[in-house]
Amino acid sequence: MVRVRLKRTGARNAACFRVVVMDQRSSRDGKAIEELGYYDPISKQEKVNVERADYWKSVGAQFTETVTDIVERVRAGKSLKDRVRKPAVSKKAKAKAAEEAKAAAEAAAKAAEEAKAEEAPAAEAAPQA
Question: Higher-confidence residue: 125 or 36?
Fold first, then answer.
């Protein structure tokens, strides 16, 4: 079975990947049938020959999830640099934020009640014209 997958290149802690067509049984960094492009997650650059990727898809090659995402981004003309990731928020942080919001809402309600209570005696004491 032929797969379109990533082949790691680059130095330690500075990974770069090539998008390659390989036999499923070959090692990750083994000999490739064809190189279709590259993906550099550090500088957020990617380039893929979409025509050749379509050819390999038509002859039955399987694409990995990551390569599928890369090809779709390149096909759509979207840059990886434009992609905005939401920061990960832990469950504890979410619970703490919910508690703070609840406390702020209670404080606002209490302040509104106090303001309303202060207005009521002042309205009664004011002379009617």
Answer: 36
- Binned at pLDDT 50, 70 and 90, residue 125 comes out as low
**Residue 34: C-alpha distances to residues 38, 69, 72, 112, 124 (Å):** 12, 19, 19, 70, 89
The domain spans of the chain are 2-82, 86-123
Q: Which of 26-30, 62-66, 89-93 has the highest mean pLDDT?
A: 62-66
Q: Which CATH number fits domain 2-82: 3.40.50.2000, 2.60.40.10, 3.30.1320.10, 3.40.50.280?
A: 3.30.1320.10
Is residue 122 scored above 70 in pLDDT?
no
Distance CA 17, CA 27 (A): 14
Do you know the residue count of the chain?
A: 129
State how far the Cα of 65 lies from the Cα of 41, in Å rounded to an integer. Answer: 16
Distance CA 58, CA 18 (A): 21
